[in-house]
Amino acid sequence: MLISELQIINFRNIAFLRAAFAPGLNLIHGPNAQGKTNVLEAISLLVTGRSFRTTMDREMIPWVRDTYEATLVRARVEKRSGEERFMLTFNQSEKHVTINGNPIGRLGELVGRINAVLFTPSDLQIVRGGPAFRRRFLDVELSQISRRYLFCLQRYDLALRQRNALLKMHQSRPNLRQELFPWDAQLAEHGAELIHARQRMVAQLSQLSASAYNRISGGSEGMKITYQSQTQPGDDDDIGTIRAKLEQALAKTQAEDIRRGATSAGPHRDDFTFLLSGRDARDYGSQGQQRSCVLAMRLAELKIMEDATGECPLLLLDDLMSELDESRKRAFMECLDRRIQIFLTATERELVVSHVKPDMIFHMDDGTLREDLIAS
Amino acid sequence: MAEKFPEPLERLINELSRLPTIGRKSAQRLAFYILKCPREQPLALARALEQLHERLGFCPRCFYIATGELCSICADPGRDASQLCVVEEPQDVAAFDKPGAYKGLYHVLLGRLSPLQGVTPEDLKINELLTRIKDPMSRVQEVILATNPNVDGDATALYLSRLIEPLGIRTTRLGLGLSIGSSIEYADELTIRKAFEGRREL
Ligand SMILES: Nc1ncnc2c1ncn2[C@@H]1O[C@H](COP(=O)(O)OP(=O)(O)OP(=O)(O)O)[C@@H](O)[C@H]1O
Ligand SMILES: [Mg+2]
Ligand SMILES: [Zn+2]
């Protein structure tokens, strides 16, 4: 899958941008605060319908808006099945998406049409931040490749909110246990599917990132990712078994849940851990090691997404070069598959071209993107 | 701040904006429209509103809408009293009651379980349902749980099945011919018929 052409109008500091990109590595370089990340943000808007930086579309509207009417991001995407055209427009009050000229009803219909893996400096939070970051990572990932997962996730969340409302507001009801039953049953049903899918995803990620990690770090620290669940599913448990375990866990914690007014067992409390030589990278890893963990996982993600969709996803790499030491940079660039279309941002051109030869080089200057014509 | 209009207009706007999906803005638009109408039209509306509660009520047996003592369905002797279809709202009865799809009786809960919105079992016509099927004169052999196929509707169905099964009565759930997230109210005839045919044990 690749973006052959991109057009951006009125997006943050980009008044107008139109560019054709190469199938392989596209480098966008320029000093800080010129708009490099903005380009990646605009692309990712077409992937999920939402920004990875903000939940407020307003923030992406240019500050100077004398003649502003709307923001537009548009792309021609070449897929194995043929070319597709995507267009997203929004302003202060409206947001529309069309695919091949046809408007789509819900933003959710956009998910999964363009596949992309994004790496940004804030990804470090996946290792360092709280469990919510990691759960969100898995949920976003799995929702992109499985509609079923997204469906179970939405149902689970609602059933959980209903159960918690019952626990909080109606604690002293005489038949509370009886009234908890229908929510517990649904939590177990959908929660089991979530745990099952996540567990398999984490196992796959672990396996694939282990080798990527060693290639990037040049070492043999033995990276692993493990899923932690209070439900304690076994590696080979099927959905039915996990469901039974989750039912038991809910029954076991019921008295405590009633006291606390919250649900203590279930995938909404699960987590996963990065291990380096058996030790938690969150507590013991250096910053560079933590970065390498996430990068290795992103590469694993790329492979999983490709297997699931039959399309090679786009790779959006923001500010990668400032994060790693020389040997890791070189090793990382070397393990990139040249079939993948990559958008890479860097503050200096040399940071990249000294390691690999990009297929196209662009310079970003105050919101204006120009192809570099200096021979490399 | 919302601007104030002369009292009669303000009162109409207030009343209109209490209706579901009508905000203050739409209420204003409607009120001004009504003000401009020839006098007969708003008077006809007022009469319709007045008579709604005078001439219509809920059936005391199944809580569907009724003009007389019982609703037209409960009053119909040709109905199959061995089947009872439980729905959330009166409009669901209208959606289900298509010729050839279902000939049994109904029971309207007038809502669905939702602790978030403060709706718990005693807010629904659940006790009335249990009394109805426990009645020695009752001929009900199967209760078809036809609440909406979403989280709240499923919870309501599960809750009811737990109460009904110990009475030795078969409970079934409508087949998921209904697409995800859709509501019964808007289902077409074919979907309804398929849903009844595909019903399964709970
Ligand atoms: N809504 C907006 N309207 C106009 N300009 C904006 C808006 N939001 C952000 N900007 C500007 O966009 C620029 C930041 O762009 P971006 O984050 O893409 O920079 P960058 O080139 O990636 O820099 P760095 O190398 O520091 O990461 C800043 O100059 C910022 O002032
Ligand atoms: Mg940046
Ligand atoms: Zn009736």
SSE blueprint and pairings:
The complex is a heterodimer of chains A (376) and B (202).
Chain A: E1 2-11, E2 14-20, E3 25-29, H1 36-48, E4 71-79, E5 82-90, E6 95-99, E7 102-103, E8 116-119, H2 124-128, H3 131-145, H4 147-169, H5 176-217, E9 223-228, H6 239-252, H7 254-260, E10 271-276, E11 279-280, H8 281-284, H9 287-309, E12 314-317, H10 326-335, E13 342-346, H11 349-353, E14 360-365, E15 368-371
Parallel strand pairs in A: 3-13, 3-14, 8-12, 12-13
Antiparallel strand pairs in A: 1-2, 1-4, 4-5, 5-6, 6-7, 9-10, 10-11, 14-15
Helix pairs in contact in A: 3-4, 4-5, 5-6, 5-9, 5-10
Chain B: H1 7-16, H2 24-36, H3 40-55, E1 57-58, E2 65-66, E3 80-87, H4 90-96, E4 104-108, H5 126-134, E5 142-145, H6 151-164, E6 170-173, H7 189-197, E7 200-201
Parallel strand pairs in B: 3-4, 3-5, 5-6
Antiparallel strand pairs in B: 1-2, 6-7
Magnesium ion is lined by residues 36-37, 318-319, 345 of chain A.
Describe this structure in words.
The complex is a heterodimer of chains A (376) and B (202). Chain A is 43% helix and 22% strand. The longest helix of chain A has 42 residues, at 176-217. Chain A contains eleven helices and 15 strands. The model of chain A has no long low-confidence stretch (mean pLDDT 93). Chain A is globular, with a radius of gyration of 23 Å. Chain B is α/β, with parallel strands linked by helices. Chain B has helices spanning 7-16, 24-36, 40-55, 90-96, 126-134, 151-164, 189-197, and strands spanning 57-58, 65-66, 80-87, 104-108, 142-145, 170-173, 200-201. In chain B, the strands form two sheets. Chain B has a five-stranded mixed β-sheet with strand order 4-3-5-6-7. Chain B has a two-stranded antiparallel ribbon with strand order 1-2. In chain B, helix 1 (7-16) packs across helix 2. At the A-B interface, helix 4 and helix 5 of A face helix 6 of B. The structure holds adenosine-5'-triphosphate (ATP), magnesium ion (MG) and zinc ion. Zinc ion binds next to loops of chain B. The site of adenosine-5'-triphosphate (ATP) has 18 residues of chain A, from helix 1.
